[in-house]
Design a protein that fits this description.
10 helices, alpha/beta, two-stranded antiparallel ribbon, eight-stranded parallel sheet
Length: 283
């Protein structure tokens, strides 16, 4: 059983796999923009995801879909901090994550009670590294080629698996130099962030090769465009949880520890069934 050092606890990840529920407070996210932009709506959605089996709520105030533009810091703060504070007040034991690449937002979220910084830039920013070093939070370190505005224009790798692993190793060394213990870090290969469908499939198929220092691995496959491409139906991953659940189970078979999804209940049920089958084989 893997462990992850978070803000105020050493978290033992559940044996069936952990679920991070996505809470977008944006008007323009690719599949749920505008649905949870008020504090009340966001709070009730967080409540429903926790009840359905989410272990973490990941709050984001900036869409990072392909082609998206950065959001002003003040606007991202307005969208996220009141929501995070409201969830922390109503669910004091919940694990809360802030999905941001902006140091000022990360700092404000930590002061409001966030347990985890989910940084799509993989600690590229020196100010972000310093903030993480000065607060005992968990960190999700993600790989991305390019920026959200450019990442899907022409992604290219000689060996995508080797290059993502090398990125992880380099960023872990950089984090250690800042005084950040690797025990606080979870790795995310960044499916769809500067990758073609072929790259995504190679990363999922070879997920075990991305395991660095036995750290937790997170997969964020929910409603991703490449699922629609594989199914020859671009809208299907948005209208049905089945593609996300199926690919998440396949990634769990290859070592994924945490799954970041929009639809919590069907994946929670699927992971429990998978765990029951795996456990019965050991009896």
């Amino acid at each position: 059983m893997r462990q992850w050092q978070l803000r105020d606890r050493l978290w033992h990840l559940p044996p069936q796999g952990a679920i991070m529920g996505i809470l977008n407070t944006t008007p323009d996210s690719f599949s749920d923009g505008g649905l949870h932009s008020s504090v009340h709506a966001a709070l009730r959605h967080a409540e429903s995801m926790l009840a359905a089996g989410a272990h973490i709520i990941d709050i984001g105030g900036e869409s990072t879909r392909p082609g998206s533009a950065p959001v002003p810091v003040e606007e991202e703060l307005r969208r996220t901090i009141p929501v995070l504070s409201a969830i922390r007040a109503e669910f004091p034991a919940a694990l809360l994550s802030i999905d941001t690449r902006t140091p000022a937002v990360a700092r404000a979220a930590l002061l409001a009670g966030a347990d985890i910084i989910n940084d799509i830039t993989g600690l590229t920013s020196a100010p972000m590294r310093k903030i993480c070093a000065s607060h005992p939070c968990g960190i999700i370190l993600m790989h991305m080629q390019g920026t959200p505005q450019t990442m899907q224009l022409a992604p290219h790798y000689t060996d995508v698996v080797a290059e993502v692993r090398a990125f992880f190793e380099q960023r872990l060394t950089l984090a250690e130099q800042e005084g950040i213990s690797p025990t606080r870090i979870c790795l995310d290969p960044g499916i769809g962030f500067g990758k073609t469908t072929a790259h995504n499939l190679q990363l999922i198929q070879n997920l075990s090769a991305l395991r660095v220092r036995n750290l937790p691995l997170m997969m964020a496959l929910s409603r991703k465009r490449f699922l629609g491409e594989l199914l020859r139906n671009p809208e299907l991953p948005k209208s049905s949880p089945l593609p996300t659940v199926t690919m998440s189970l396949l990634s769990a078979d290859r070592g994924a520890d945490i799954h970041r999804v929009h639809d919590v209940a069907p994946l929670a049920q699927a992971l429990l069934l998978r765990h029951s089958l795996n456990f019965s084989q050991k009896i």
